[in-house]
């Protein structure tokens, strides 16, 4: 392709929301008369964040990339969950094309390339540069987890034919950018907009956000690239987040569902922050929840109403949540124990998911009373995630006592007693806890956990179980590159595993 993305002039006529993303629109803007002052950078930052949440967070295709969900009936997730994408995804399918990610990267690059042209205070400069660096680094990290090697583009006008950059090099650039962003940005509780108003949106990047992304990046690189020495760095990044008073665990699981999942809670670290406006509202069908939740959350449905494509049996839930004292059994699933006794002619032996418990309904028209959206942000990282990640890393370096303390902190919050198993089984138990805590939450959380822990053959389905070491070396754990990346681009190469499995263009 002649361009990975098209140079995009900033769209300043977009709707605004009642937080730090709000901006007044201008007209008659060109690249020549733009980038003069804080107002221009504020508009550019707004555009970056809106593109970020709309093109990745709101885009339904991102949900289809989740190959790790533990459901018994997978619907449209069947092929990706079985690593058999050729049966479901065409070469131009949105799920294997990275256009949306590069739209975000392009807007971040525009800010980074032009910020020195504007007359800014040091605080304004640090804020806008930190936002762009943090968002870009996260998107590249998300991409390298999904595709492995991707073109590394750090300037908006860097166009023309592009080859794929080794993911390890992309990761190193992310590390550099995140470390710089940490020096530029305050902790979340001290984050302010250009008018000195406190920022409460957890989509805004703080130093804590960057530490959290770094923790995951180090843990990923330590495992996938076999660099165990990075585990200690991952632990240090987790320490920085956990000691940050901006963040606090919710007191119990009911509070997680009622306050954390809706968004911008004290437990939240990084989120796609959706507003109840026509442009920003995330349609309920775009949520993973929309494919597994029906009654009793969705209005005008009944226990026997046919639900969407993702179903989980009571037996699977009981296996995942074996402790009857675990609060998540009743908060994440509607009356699990009593509904399990209801006739299977109604339930078909499946549990009723209810983790996303608050909805917005239509107030008028022919859809009055029907669900419009969930009241929920897409949680990228929350404090429980970082605590359990630290537990995982501590277990790997032999600090089993420290790992147990972190693990038990999350278990106890859910009403579960301390882990009483052996150190040999500790790593598996930590991963089990992550599966329980983050059930139907985040983008590919369980899948990336399985890849990072190297137990994808044991925990995933279909062709994952029969992958050879050569398959893995050839990129079987990553997505194929979509056809659009090959247009007029002789430098682009397909991932070897997927090339021999039908993705040749």
Q: How would you characterize the overall build of this protein?
A:
It is a single chain. The protein is mainly α and 505 residues long. The chain has a domain at 288-375. It has 20 helices and four strands. The strands form two sheets. A two-stranded antiparallel sheet has the order 1-4. It has a two-stranded antiparallel ribbon with strand order 2-3. Helix 4 (99-114) packs antiparallel against helix 5 (122-147) and helix 8 (230-242) packs antiparallel against helix 14. The longest helix has 26 residues, at 122-147. It is globular.
Task: Detail the topology: elements first, then pairings.
Layout: H1 38-57, H2 60-64, H3 78-81, H4 99-114, H5 122-147, H6 167-184, H7 207-224, H8 230-242, H9 253-260, E1 268-272, H10 314-320, H11 328-331, H12 336-339, H13 344-347, E2 359-361, E3 371-374, E4 378-382, H14 383-396, H15 400-413, H16 426-437, H17 445-453, H18 456-459, H19 469-473, H20 496-499
Antiparallel strand pairs: 1-4, 2-3
Overall average residue pLDDT? 91
Weakly predicted, low-confidence segments: 1-28
> What portion of the residues fall into strands of 2 or more residues?
under 5%
Q: What value does the Rg take, in angstroms?
A: 22 Å
Structural class: mainly alpha
Distance between the termini: 13 Å
Order the strands across the largest sheet as they lie in space: 1-4
Q: What key attributes describe this structure?
A:
505 residues, mainly alpha, two-stranded antiparallel sheet, 4 strands, 3% strand, globular, disordered N terminus
